[in-house]
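Reviewer 2 asked us to include a model.

Predict the structure of this chain.
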Amino acid sequence: MVLSDRKKPLFMISVAAELAEMHPQTLRMYERRGLVRPNRSTKQTRLYSMDDVERLRYIQRLTTEGGLNLAGVERVLQLEGLMEELRERIGALESELEGLVAQARDEVEEVHRSYRRELVQLPGRAVVVRRTSLRRT
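Predicted model (structure tokens):
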């Protein structure tokens, strides 16, 4: 299934409830609590996507296997949302940092290239002096 297909609202509440192995009333309660947000048709029928069904299954695992109540589930979902935002922000900052490192590397290389133009080694000596300080006689 293509990613965009997973977000497409396809299932009425009865089908979504069956796929999530829940009672339709549970889905309505989860919607009232803001745990899931199904789309609405033009006739205001709830339509659930495959992502919504997966979220319902996840909520069910948190309550049954994890022993969380709905307040705990809400908090877990909030924290996971925050973590996702932070991951995206970290990714953006890493990209920005990579660009700045490359820019700094280029600038350092340019400075090193300028040294080669300013310095000259005198024959027979190990001393390196600036070209600008050499006098012609």
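The mean pLDDT is 87. The longest helix spans residues 70-118. We have added this to the supplementary material.
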